[in-house]
Amino acid sequence: MYNMRLCSIFWTVLCLLFPGILLAQWGNRYADPVFESILTTSGIPFSSAVKEGQTSPTTLYLDFYEPSEDTLSARPLVITVFGGAYVTGSRDWSDMVEYCTRFAEHGYVAASIDYRLLPITSLNSSTIIRSAYMAAQDVNSAIRFLKAHCNEYRIDTSNIFLLGNSAGSIAILNEIFMSNEERPSQTFVSPDLGPMNSCGYDEYAGFSSKVAGAVSQWGGVLDVEVIDLDEYVPLCLIHGTEDNAVPYDSGFCYSNLSLSIFPYMYGSHAIANHLSDLGIEDYEFHPFEGEEHCFYITAFTNLIEDKFDACFHIARDFLYNHLDTHLTTGVSHYETDNVKIYPNPASDVLFVEVKGGERVANITLCDMQGRIVKECDASPVFLDRLPSGVYAVHVKTSDGRKFIQKVVVK
Length: 410
Known about the structure:
Layout (H helix, E strand, L loop, with lengths): L1 H16 L1 H8 L11 E13 L6 E11 L7 E7 L12 H12 L3 E5 L11 H24 L1 H4 L1 E11 L1 H11 L35 E5 L2 E2 L13 E6 L9 E3 L11 E4 H10 L5 E6 L16 H18 L11 E2 L3 E4 L6 E6 L5 E7 L5 E5 L4 E2 L6 E9 L4 E8 L1
Parallel strand pairs: 3-4, 3-5, 5-6, 6-8, 8-11
Antiparallel strand pairs: 1-2, 2-4, 7-10, 9-10, 12-13, 13-14, 14-17, 15-16, 15-18, 18-19
Helix pairs in contact: 4-6
C-alpha cells in the first residue's frame, strides 16, 4: 500500500511539473497531436547534382521538422516531395509545410526536400521523362543522407516513409520500384543519368535507400510491371477520379490540353488493380469521387482545409498502422501469428521461426545507418565478429511477407 501511494505521488508531481513532456512521451503518440511546439531547421544541404541541360552541379536542400522537448532517441521519419510537373514547386509550398508540421506535432520527424527542376523552355517529351527520373534520384539521395545522419537527427531508420504530391509521387514510386534494367530509354541518352543511387555526395553512397512505406497522392508510373513482389513496400494511394493531369486509371498526362509531349501513365486505380493481381493485400486505395488533380489546394497554393484534412487523416492512419511500434517499446522478442525472432538481446546467435507452414526466404541485418552487415537465407543467424550495438533484422518469408525487428547485439 505504501509503495502504491508513493508511486501515485510521484506521477502526480511529474504531471504537475512537466505536463507537456509527459503527454508527448506517454500519450497516444503518432495517432494524435501530442506536441504543441515544433522546431524547424531550414536549408540543410543533402545533395549536389547536375540539372538537365547544365554541366555544373547544383546544391539541393531540405527543411527538417521535429517536436520540441522530445526525449526519444530514434523517431520515425516522413520525407515529403512536392509537386509541380517538374518545372515548378518548392519544398516550402503550403501543403508540404502543413504535412511536415502536423506529423511533427504527432511525434514524427519530417523532411521536405528539393529536387532538380526543369527550365520550362527545355520542356519536351524526352526531358520530362529524364526530369522525373532525376527527381527519383534526388529522393534516393535524401533517404541516404538522412540515414547517414540518423544519430544527429534522431531518426529510426527502420521507420522511414515517403509522401508525395503529383510529380513528387511519381518520383517516390520510381525511387522505390524502378531498377536499373527498367529505366526509360530517355535516361540513357547522353549524358547518361546513371543508376538510381548514383547522385548525391560520395560519402553517403554506401547507405541503403530502403523505406517502410509510401503515400502517393495522384501519382503514377510509366509501366505497372515495374512494381513486383520482391521490392514491394506498403503503399497508400490517393487519387481523384476526374484527374486529367495524372490519369486516375491510365492515359496521357494532361489529356485535356491535347499536348503530345506528356507521357502515357498508369495512375492509382491501375496500380491498385496490379497489386491485387499480384496477390498483394497490404495496400490502401482511396479514390475521391468527382475530384480533379491535387484537389486539396487552389491555384494560388491555398489549402482547402476539409479536403486537406481528409488526405492527412488517411496518411496519418496509414503510417500509424505500418509503424514498427515494437522497435521502441523495449519488448524482449517479436512474435506475430507468423514470425518469432529471439533472443533479444542476443550475443552469439539469433533464431528466426516462421509458423503456419511457411519458411524463411531471406534474413538481412542492417546497422542503424541502413547498411547491410549480414545476410542469409535460413535460421539461425550467427553473430560472430559483429560489433555490439543495435541492428534491424529484416525477415522475408516464402509467401512474400516481410517483418522487421530491432535487436541488441551484446
